[in-house]
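EI: anyone free to look at a 154-residue chain?
SC: sure, send it
EI:
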Amino acid sequence: MSNEKEVNGSRKGGRKEVLTLELAKKIAAFIRRLPDAEVPVTWKNIEVHVAKRFQIKPKRNVLATKEWNGRRLIWEAYDEAVQVEKRLQRQNTSKYADSSRAALRARITALEAKILSLQTELNATRERQYDELCVLWARNTPLHKLLDDQPPPS
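SC: here you go
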């Protein structure tokens, strides 16, 4: 198939390999970081960023099909990054994005009513605690007598 002859596992003749295993590992790690940087994970973006960062211009088919020890490292990283990107998009979409306006308005009304009832309860609790504190301040009884009749510390 190929005119190149291999001697002891190394290539003889022809152009030197540009996409080495070490470079592929760096590219794979770079691809895995794309979703975190909010860069769309597409082959075109990968080609552009690889050209800028690593000063090589491989095409999609080279990146996707090149294998080392039976594994397509760059393709696997791309696949993982796409899955992470989709998961992040699902997490960021609204829970009620497909609901009708009437359903959303009903939900908003229920939540606003709940907020009002909680605010009313909070105000009542504050008033009660303030009254209890005022009664405590108004008493002439020393605090140490109110607290288990312990003598004041010396």
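EI: The chain has a mean pLDDT of 83.
SC: 👍
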